[in-house]
TrEMBL record:
Keywords: Elongation factor, GTP-binding, Nucleotide-binding, Protein biosynthesis. The keyword GTP-binding applies. Belongs to the TRAFAC class translation factor GTPase superfamily. Classic translation factor GTPase family. EF-G/EF-2 subfamily. InterPro entries: EF-G-like_DII, EFG_II, EFG_III, EFG_III/V, P-loop_NTPase, Ribosomal_Su5_D2-typ_SF, Ribsml_uS5_D2-typ_fold_subgr, Transl_B-barrel_sf. Pfam families: EF-G_D2 (PF22042), EFG_III (PF14492), EFG_IV (PF03764). Residues 347-448 form the Translation elongation factor EFG/EF2 domain. GO terms for biological process: mitochondrial translational elongation. SUPFAM superfamilies: EF-G C-terminal domain-like, P-loop containing nucleoside triphosphate hydrolases, Ribosomal protein S5 domain 2-like, Translation proteins. One of its GO terms (molecular function) is GTPase activity. One of its GO terms (cellular component) is mitochondrion. This is Elongation factor G, putative (EF-G).
Amino acid sequence: KGVYDLVNKKGYLFKGKSGVNVEEIPSDQDVLNIDPSFPINLVELLRHRIFEKLADADDEFAEIYLNNDVNDIKIDDIHKTIRKCTILNKIAPICLGSAKSNVGVQLLLDNVCNFLPSPREVKNYGYVYDGQNIADTDIVNNNMDADVENRETNDNCVQSNKNKREVQLLCDHSAPMVGFLFKIQEDSMHGQMSYFRIYQGKIRKKDMITNMITHKKEVVKKIMKMHSNMAQEINEAHAGDIIAINGITGSTGTTYTNGITTNLHLLNIYVPKPVISVAVEILKKGDMTKLTKALNKFTKEDPTFYVKTDEQTKETIFEGIGELQLEIYKERLKREFNINVNLKNPKINFKETITKPYECSYTYKKQKGGAGLYAHVHAIFETVSDNYNDTPHCQFVNEVIGNDLPKNFIQSIEKAFKEQIEKGYLNQSEIINMKMRLISGKIHEVDS
């Protein structure tokens, strides 16, 4: 229903359709009247912890914190310190809410405006790789060595490379254009919309810009300023703007320039590995072709969304970074493509193996008038490796000495061993990490 702001000591309720109406709850007593279970006794403790972290990060605020009662510290001083430390990458403010229920979204956007830097307040860098040719030397940071020492932690993740030169990008519309494509979205009206951040220079409608991956020139057909799901077409955008472009074909993480600068790349987007997977059940068999088309669109738009087919169960598997993300794609399949699916837990591909060595000697003997059936095998079964994950395969080793077993019999034993590995023993699951050492055997001249 709502959130509590520890800094401002206020509660907020989100009412109306999709939580669009925000109601401020000014006092702690009013909060308790609405929700008697709210742990109001923890508020002061948590506020103290916030102020202690701010004092550790900023000496000026530390003096204010030590010389004043917590309740006497001005909200403006708190906001000023949070903004200062956030820009310096010393802290990261956390806002709670629910995107699905639209709870806390308005406060999050307010905090983006209050605490995050404008494009002119931070330094951004690109990297020119070997063979670089920068025509406009004004964009090169001549004091690069001195400036690197003062770089904030987000730039320290760049891997060292002797053939890589660092370039400071200026938030200046008169400098050569450098931009970054960070999101792709298919739109029924505009086609592929490429969300684009301009770090330097400007872009005009019908400009030719160069894809730094393919080194091909592409035409900017439309420039749109986005307001939620509404697009306002404009003719020009400048450094610091975030826009949507129609006409370019780059993938997520592509750097674009105006062609003057070559081999310039910005740091790519970090894509986390999936942490959750679900199996997809199609309710209508004829929707498989439409589903393939829809999933191609989704995976192109979102690099954190993965689709695969389980080789053993033949199930279609969705993988992502959260349960809500996968539920949203389920709803989009229904809304945009009229495809109904169920999401369920994927089948678990159990594996079987042995836990300790086992030596056996087995004789098969059967007589039914005339020629019978006879075979004797002596073998040892053991693990291939102590690490099951590193050694999923099984091995067959022939250690028979002499000519007790003909070659064709040994081949038959190996074939039967491999067939049984696939079938399993306990619950028809594949057997892994097991070695069969064939020690000896016997045959009968007539019955084998």
